[in-house]
Specification:
With 441 residues, the chain is an alpha/beta fold. The chain has a single domain (13-430), classed as Thiamin diphosphate (ThDP)-binding fold, Pyr/PP domains (Rossmann fold). Helix content is 37%, strand content 14%. It has 13 helices and 15 strands. The strands form five sheets. A seven-stranded mixed beta sheet has the order 4-12-13-9-8-6-7, with helices on both faces. β1 (13-16) and β2 form a beta hairpin. α2 (101-126) crosses α3, α2 packs antiparallel against α12 and α2 (101-126) packs across α13 (376-399). The relative contact order is 0.19. The chain binds thiamine diphosphate and magnesium ion (MG). Thiamine diphosphate binds next to β8 and β10. Residues 160, 162, 209-211, 238-242, 267, 269, 271-273, 336 line the site of thiamine diphosphate (TPP).
Length: 441
């Protein structure tokens, strides 16, 4: 399992491998819970039968699935996006964006899938099937989809804990993968924690629970890319609150000094946990805060604006003009994590207003209808298809065999220099093996 690992010590550990300069992040997700289930398969006790009932009830509530994705064609249309704001750039991406019908439907489909998927995870969490911490990105879907469409699979991505949307883009069996991380047996292994996911094989470096750490780690990834003379780039994603940290500015300094091929992406959703930007941050133009580093502000609710800006900057980065900073204005509809109802520090009106005026999925839907790329009826069928996809993933995940505990400590290092891997205390020691096998992806 050369992909990630769950976390340790309620935080993450990261390290640079001198041989390959590949940076790997190890994480551990855990929480003290008791469990003795061996498989998600046949109900053996009350808990098990509850899971099966849950699976059934969720599937029952999802839409009937008879539809087929609308047949794509390649008519195109020019869409207008909100003007970008530029810092130390003489020109920016065009605000008139050409988008084909296939592309528009694909973007719409992807954003819907992320929202549906996140809603499913939320449901599973409230039913206590997913455990640990859980930070949903509902409302922020346009950013991860736009970025994904603008970069290549060889480019590297490192995100915060609010990175599910990026993950759903790269992992095929995503729900199975996710539920395995949330598996009770694994979760029971350690005391607390932030669920952090990293899949080195797919150039997805997580999923980091330490606020802001993605920027220095991302700079490490980009340094390796430059050192190895590749034309690949890195994207490091953090939130607005994180940008008040010192490590962000140390990283900006080094990244610019070394001309690293990296785009620092700040997802500005206006809140750091329950603290609004007004209360925490002086100087709200986060795209300018790299001083000599060029930056762009964009509408993070508009997937076309995100895609276009990242295509523009990725090209420059590959030409050795990096680093860059992007500030994407966005909003999270749910609380900071699932344990936060999300309304004590902001009003329901505020949330509803954003949903009504700038929901990323509705915005794309309107464009598709305006351009006559598809009819309302066809879009409804796409929704059904997405629900079917999530439905199938749920079924597959529920029927999947659980990984065993030893998987947790395999393939953490390319070469483990110590006899054991330590657990949450120095007294718990675990054996490390290199299996080289990918599990559940
Ligand atoms: C170094 C560090 N400090 C504090 C925390 C606790 N914490 C977790 S998320 C968070 C807020 C981060 O807000 P922001 O960067 O805006 O990201 P968002 O959650 O809005 O995506 C804080 C303070 C942490 N995990 N790590
Ligand atoms: Mg924030």
């Amino acid at each position: 399992m050369s992909f990630v690992r769950l976390v340790n010590n309620s935080r993450y550990i990261s390290y640079l491998l001198p041989k390959t300069f590949a940076l790997r992040t190890i994480s551990i997700a855990s929480r003290s819970l008791s469990s003795n289930s061996d498989s998600r398969q046949p109900p053996k006790d009350e808990n098990e039968s509850e899971k099966h009932d849950l699976c059934k009830s969720i599937m029952d509530t999802l839409h009937n699935v008879e539809s087929k994705f609308v047949q794509p064609s390649s008519e195109s249309f020019v869409f207008q996006v909100k003007p970008y704001r530029l810092h130390r750039l003489t020109e920016g991406p065009s605000c008139e964006i050409v988008c084909t019908r296939d592309e528009a439907l694909d973007l719409y489909h992807r954003m819907l899938r992320i929202r549906q998927m996140e809603s499913m995870v939320n449901t599973l969490y409230t039913k206590r099937f997913v455990r640990g911490f859980c930070h949903l990105c509902i409302g922020q879907e346009a950013i991860c989809v736009g970025v994904e469409k603008a970069i290549t699979k060889k480019d590297r991505l490192i995100t915060s804990y609010r990175g599910h949307g990026y993950l759903w883009n790269v992992v095929k069996r995503w729900l199975t993968f996710y539920l395995n991380l949330a598996d009770e047996k694994w979760v029971a292994l350690e005391e607390k924690v932030v669920r952090c996911i990293c899949i080195v094989r797919y150039n997805f470096y997580g999923g980091n629970g330490i606020v802001g750490a993605q920027f220095p780690l991302g700079a490490g990834l980009a340094f390796a890319q430059k050192y190895l003379n590749t034309d690949e780039i890195s994207i490091a994603v953090c939130g607005d609150g994180a940008t008040n940290q010192g490590q962000i500015y140390e990283t900006y300094n080094m990244a610019k000094l070394w001309k690293l091929p990296i785009i620092f992406l700040v997802e500005n959703n206006g809140y750091a946990m329950t603290t609004s930007m007004e209360r925490s941050t002086c100087g709200h133009d986060l795209y300018t805060k790299g001083d000599v580093i060029p930056g762009i502000w964009l509408d993070g609710m508009d997937v076309l604006a995100v895609r276009s800006a990242f295509e523009f900057l990725a090209k420059k980065c590959r030409n050795g003009e990096g680093p860059f900073i992007v500030e994407a204005s966005t909003y999270r509809y749910k609380g900071h994590s699932v344990s936060d109802p999300g309304v004590g520090y902001r009003t329901r009106e505020e949330i509803n207003e954003v949903r009504r005026k700038s929901d990323p999925i509705d915005m794309m839907k309107k464009r598709i209808l305006d351009a006559k790329f598809a009819t309302e009826k066809q879009l409804k069928r796409i929704i059904s298809d997405v629900k079917a996809e999530v439905n199938d993933a749920l079924k597959e995940a529920m029927n999947d065999t659980e990984l065993t505990e030893d998987h947790l400590f395999n393939d953490v290092f390319v070469s483990c220099l110590q006899p054991h891997i330590r657990g949450i205390t120095p007294f718990t020691k675990h054996t490390h093996s290199n299996t080289g096998k990918i599990q559940n992806l």
